[in-house]
Amino acid sequence: MTPDDSDHLMLAAYLDGELSPGETIAMERRLEADPELRRLRDALSNLSGTVHDLVAETPVPPDLSARVRGQIAKAQNLPPQRETPSWQRIAAALVVGLLVGGPLGYGLSQVAAPPRSNAIEDAIFAGHLRGLAAPQPFDIASSDRHTVKPWFNGRTAIAPDAPDLAAQGFPLVGGRVDIVAGEPVPTLVYRRRQHVISVTVVPRSEVGAPGRDRRKGSGIERWTTGDLGYFATSDLNSKELGEFANAFRAATAPAG
Predict the structure, then answer these.
(1) Does the CA dihedral 113-114-116-120 come out positive or negative?
(2) How far, rounded to the nearest angstrom, does the alpha carbon of residue 69 sit from its chain's CA centroid?
(3) Superfamily holding 116-252
């Protein structure tokens, strides 16, 4: 059974220990019986941990606390609370907002936005995790680049080339739309054995210096070609992810 928005919210409350004993038992029984729900739990836990790591060491500024309380009250149609939220509560609310696309997630993204370069990579990494949590990591399943590229027309401002890298050991398996900086952007999906590689394409201006990062056991390779910037995210080892990035760059390099 595919989890819905209410499942996202209940799982977030379950992970935060906010369910009643009866609700906790019921959720644990559902988790035992539903593998898709278990995948969503694991992805939500990883995403929450990622947000926590980004902000856990930083004290909450007083003005941010007031603005967050206002956003929570507005989203839930409740009077503002006097409790001072911790970064952990802010992170948990942000995770739920990202997953269900609600106004609380949008509001918190406005009041607690990190520096733009970090925010872009954070959103791309979150999109990769959401893809892994879904039944399939793509919206369109196809190994044909002539099918995947035009599928993005009308869905995103960019319709990127989708090179066939099967000969190099990285077959194209599909594509999906992610949200970065409030805009829909294309993500190409490749595989290496059982590993998923997400290649998110954004305007060149959204990419900092080319390079690589590691987050929660996953690698991120970023580079630019022409007017476009690319982020390749996967739990592949650094060597193979670097080989993929080199193969992708070579296949999409301008002629001449």
Answers:
(1) negative
(2) 25
(3) MucB/RseB, C-terminal domain (3.30.200.100)
How do strand 195-203 and strand 211-215 relate by DSSP bridges?
Answer: unpaired
* Alpha helix positions (H), the chain: 5-15, 21-33, 35-55, 62-76, 87-100, 103-111, 116-133, 145-151, 238-252
pLDDT in tens, 125-152: 999 999 998 889 999 999 999 999 999 9
Q: Is the pLDDT of residue 87 over 50?
A: no
Cα 160 from Cα 175, distance rounded (Å): 10
What one-letter code names the amino acid at 14?
Answer: Y
pTM of the predicted structure, to 2 decimals: 0.57
Nearest-Å Rg of the Cα atoms of the chain is 19
Q: How far apart (Å, rounded) are the C-alpha atoms in residues 219 and 238?
A: 7
Token readout for 121 is 């990579």
